[in-house]
């Protein structure tokens, strides 16, 4: 199971990186919502990693300097992989959401949510790119595996 989860994070990392690249190449054409969503996508993985690791997290909708997104994405990837390799994925972890409500989930559930969440928002970003006359990326997992 750990190998499959690592594969999914490799997929997530790859297409986050590609999405940052296409936004960068078209920065004068993208709208604020696109910038907000790519930041949110990257921030969310950092937040889930930090919940598992007990570290300080980003704000959900904080806007990072655009030039730092690729490095944050890379750090997120490395931390997620380290969590997969070093933690019992069935272990349950307590955390608080951005509103301060307490929850408990398995580490696997938290990591899988981070993957699924980024896929969802990349789809939204693709819709915005298309609306702004930019060719959307084919980010489906099956395209990544071909």
TrEMBL record:
Protein name as annotated: Damage-inducible protein DinB
> Which Gene3D superfamilies does UniProt cross-reference here?
dinb family like domain (1.20.120.450)
Keyword flag Metal-binding: yes
Does the keyword field hold Metal-binding? yes
Among the Pfam families in the record, one is DinB
Q: Which SUPFAM superfamilies match?
A: DinB/YfiT-like putative metalloenzymes
Q: Which UniProt keywords apply?
A: Metal-binding
Family membership: Belongs to the DinB family.
